[in-house]
Design brief:
Largest sheet: none
Strand content: under 5%
Number of strands: 0
Helix content: over 70%
Distance between the termini: 34 Å
Length: 80
């Protein structure tokens, strides 16, 4: 095997490794978005059934939705 073909094989392996790392990182960030949605938004909606006029809970649910979409958008950017 020549030096050139060996270097090309190393480049291919590095490219595959980078692709795998990006995929795993984006999965992790998507999971963070799911946890944020579950913990903050669903938890806040349950509190809204008890007291729908509590402004603080509405703010928490709104921030939770915004954070979820922001984290999911970031995960999408990682994949690209």
């Amino acid at each position: 095997m020549s030096k050139w073909s060996f270097q090309q094989e190393l480049k291919r392996e590095e490219k595959e490794l980078s692709k795998t790392r990006k995929g795993n990182l984006s999965k992790f960030v998507y999971d963070l978005a799911k946890v944020t949605f579950t913990g903050v938004v669903i938890g806040g909606v349950i509190q809204l059934y008890e007291n729908p006029h509590d402004f603080g809970v509405w703010v928490m649910v709104g921030n939770g939705l915004f954070s979820t979409f922001l984290i999911a958008f970031y995960a999408n950017k990682i994949l690209k």
